[in-house]
């Protein structure tokens, strides 16, 4: 069976490496989406399979020649990289010292361990972009999760831009798109695995952030963080209820009111925007039949029926949204019945792209996700599938969130080991974000007095230790599968610190006269509603950035080029060292001038100043979305109780290597040139990092 699967995946890779741009096969956008016709997909695959089979002898000969040359120059047979997103060095070192992480401790003893320098700011899209390109933000153009849209003040996602075709034809109530949708990767720079592919080194890359849309290269890739859901958002859950809890749902999802006395409720599952009409979203009828005595419910979605018990997280539910002209859009979702009585409370996860019938490519080749779903079962495709916002909003319980997170982790671990068995040389790289999301949400239990615990509760005290033990066990299983010519790298993009207080930078700017509101108002709505840009000199956007309202850059900018340096110095002088009066402690450790820390062709696209918060503080939730409130400092009462969007000096990552390294201060930007060097490929001059000088350790990696 293993040989058959290996042959299938090898043929799959060869067939689809020659495919044209996948976007060309899409036939109709909606909210930035386009839907792949199954007939076109199947026919195209068959034709390309035939072409590949006819040219297979020549391809195999060329591959053998390249392989011999590469092997002669390579120092290793295979490099295996495991990313534990957010693994914190202080916790890892403490747990190793206590004997709780024996496999990581053994790896550090036999090879190398060091704290890993991270990016400024230490935000996941920024850090992982530096990891894959070996360059700083000025060269890869990712500065935050959000970016300032050119020509305006509203934000967009920093990693990708998805837009419908420019033209369409009206036929009565219908709008027929002409041309293909525009799906554009905004991250610049070349990932090191693409360079490896150009030199004949095979690679399989799983769930590395900022890999959507998947770029073509000679290898296999499954997209990670920032892959959208079927609505085109970064994750929008639904909460069906006839009770009061849904009134508080504000962010990351929406509440659907169940009307009538029950026990039968008629409602619908909302999907993507209708691609052919302007009258809202596609939907599927859903009937909820509650059995209060049995504490359960029956869900009838379309023609399918599912049973779910109270406190149970369902398996993946297939969803088919029907659009005009016979177009079908496939998705998957999970349900969780929080309560059957006295109030009905039903959570439905974000509707995700079905990996077996993808309406947008979530892998390269396109059929790679189909293959993984066929072999290992359906899986989450959303960039951040663990629903942190549903937990923050009180829709999911701690237990349900952990079950969801570890189910996602277990599937990815199975996919990783399956890939490891198939790819016997070259690169295998996989990023597990379980470490990141669980620490974000459960740090409150190891932080006495955290505002999120005012309502009581201390049942999660062992969750983070258990998390680290689980990752250590994964390392143990991995090392058993590695051979003498394999090199193992384990790393995190950043560490973690407590987040108990939020700082509303936009409120501070209003209070100090830099951000001016209309009619003398003291507060403004989301996305700068109510701002008087004709008198505003500075504004904050995203998790770390402060922008000047520059003339010639912003549409209503007033800050002249010659005045920018003085204004930045003035703002830095007031903000650096700022004290939270209520706590009597420094909230902002440093302010960085972006012009001094970034270089490269895209440096000017980032913020003007980077705010480096002290541990315990972070930009407030309201300020991220452009709101100015009455409060400047505010308690963080959400389950999201730890963060890393602070001064980069406080949150280095971890770095383990099965070989010895010559460098005493490795940095995230050094990983890409190190891997290239191990395979005998000269790192490009555009990379800011340098090879770490790895010497293979004796014995098993």
Give an account of the 3D structure.
28% of the residues lie in helices and 26% in strands. The protein has an 8-stranded mixed β-sheet with strand order 4-37-26-3-25-11-12-24, sandwiched between helices. It has a 4-stranded mixed β-sheet with strand order 14-13-22-21, with no helix packed on it. A hairpin with a 5-residue loop joins strand 19 and strand 20 (328-333). The relative contact order is 0.16. The protein is an alpha+beta fold. It is globular. The protein contains 18 helices and 39 strands. The chain has a domain at 499-649. The chain starts with a helix and ends in a 6-residue tail after the last strand.
Quick one: how many beta strands? 39
Helix content: 25-40%
Radius of gyration: 26 Å
Which whole number gives the mean pLDDT? 89
Low-confidence stretches: 1-43
Give the strand line-up of the largest sheet.
Answer: 4-37-26-3-25-11-12-24
Structural class from helices and strands? alpha+beta
* Biggest beta sheet attributes: 8 strands, mixed
The number of helical elements comes to: 18
């Amino acid at each position: 069976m293993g040989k058959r699967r290996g042959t299938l995946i090898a043929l799959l890779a060869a067939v689809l490496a020659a495919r044209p741009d996948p976007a060309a096969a899409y036939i109709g956008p909606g909210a930035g989406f386009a839907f792949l016709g199954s007939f076109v997909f199947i026919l195209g695959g068959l034709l390309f399979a035939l072409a590949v089979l006819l040219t297979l002898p020549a391809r195999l000969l060329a591959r053998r020649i390249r392989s011999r040359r590469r092997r002669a120059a390579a120092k290793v047979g295979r490099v295996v990289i495991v990313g534990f997103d957010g693994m914190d060095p202080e916790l890892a070192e403490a747990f190793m010292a206590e004997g709780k992480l024996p496999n990581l401790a053994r790896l550090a003893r036999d090879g190398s361990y060091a704290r890993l320098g991270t990016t400024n700011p230490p935000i996941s899209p920024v850090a992982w972009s530096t990891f894959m390109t070996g360059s700083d933000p000025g060269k890869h153009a990712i500065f935050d999760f959000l970016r300032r849209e050119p020509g305006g003040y509203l934000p967009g996602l920093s990693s990708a831009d998805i837009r419908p075709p420019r033209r369409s034809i009206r036929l009565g109530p219908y709008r027929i798109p002409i041309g293909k949708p525009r799906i554009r990767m905004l991250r610049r720079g070349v990932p090191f695995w693409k360079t490896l592919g150009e030199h004949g080194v095979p690679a399989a890359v799983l769930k590395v952030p900022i890999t959507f849309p998947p770029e073509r290269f000679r290898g296999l890739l499954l997209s990670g963080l920032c892959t959208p859901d079927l609505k085109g958002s970064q994750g929008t859950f639904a909460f069906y209820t006839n009770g009061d809890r849904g009134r508080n749902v504000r962010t990351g999802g929406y509440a659907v009111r169940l009307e009538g006395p029950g026990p039968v409720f008629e409602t619908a599952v909302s999907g993507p925007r209708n691609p052919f009409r302007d009258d809202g979203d596609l939907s599927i009828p859903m009937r909820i039949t509650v059995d209060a005595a049995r504490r359960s419910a029956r869900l009838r979605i379309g023609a399918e029926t599912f049973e779910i018990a109270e406190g149970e997280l369902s398996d993946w539910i297939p969803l088919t949204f029907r659009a005009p002209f016979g177009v079908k859009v496939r998705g998957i979702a999970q349900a969780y019945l929080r309560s059957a009585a006295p109030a009905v409370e039903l959570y439905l996860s974000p509707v995700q792209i079905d990996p077996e019938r993808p309406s947008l490519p979530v892998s390269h080749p396109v059929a790679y996700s189909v293959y993984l779903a066929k072999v290992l079962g359906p899986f989450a495709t959303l960039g951040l599938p663990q629903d942190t916002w549903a937990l923050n909003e009180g829709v999911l319980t701690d237990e349900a969130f952990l079950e969801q997170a570890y189910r996602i982790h277990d599937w990815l671990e199975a996919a990783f080991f399956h890939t490891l068995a198939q790819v016997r040389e070259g690169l295998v790289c996989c990023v597990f974000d379980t470490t990141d999301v669980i620490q974000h949400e459960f740090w409150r239990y190891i932080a006495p007095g955290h505002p999120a615990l005012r309502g009581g509760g201390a049942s999660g005290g062992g969750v983070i230790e258990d998390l680290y033990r689980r990752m250590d066990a994964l390392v143990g299983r991995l090392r058993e599968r590695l051979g003498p010519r394999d090199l193992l790298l384990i790393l995190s993009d950043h560490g973690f610190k407590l987040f108990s207080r939020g700082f509303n930078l936009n409120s501070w700017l209003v209070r100090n006269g830099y951000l001016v509101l209309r009619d003398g108002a003291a507060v403004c709505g989301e996305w700068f509603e109510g701002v008087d840009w004709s008198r505003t000199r500075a504004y904050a956007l995203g998790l770390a950035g402060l922008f000047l309202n520059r003339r010639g850059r912003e549409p209503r900018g007033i800050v002249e080029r010659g005045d920018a340096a003085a204004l930045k110095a003035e703002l830095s002088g007031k903000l650096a060292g700022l004290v939270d009066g209520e706590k009597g402690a420094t909230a902002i450790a440093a302010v960085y001038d972006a012009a001094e820390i970034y270089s490269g062709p895209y440096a000017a696209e980032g913020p003007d100043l980077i705010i480096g918060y002290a541990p315990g503080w972070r930009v407030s939730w309201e300020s991220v979305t452009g709101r100015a409130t009455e409060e400047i400092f505010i308690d963080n009462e959400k389950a999201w109780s730890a963060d890393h969007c602070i001064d980069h000096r406080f949150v280095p990552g971890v770095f383990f290597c099965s070989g010895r390294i010559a460098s005493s201060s490795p940095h995230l930007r050094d990983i890409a040139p190190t891997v290239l060097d191990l395979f005998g490929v000269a790192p490009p001059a555009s990379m800011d990092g340098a090879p770490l000088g790895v010497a293979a350790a004796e014995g098993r990696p």
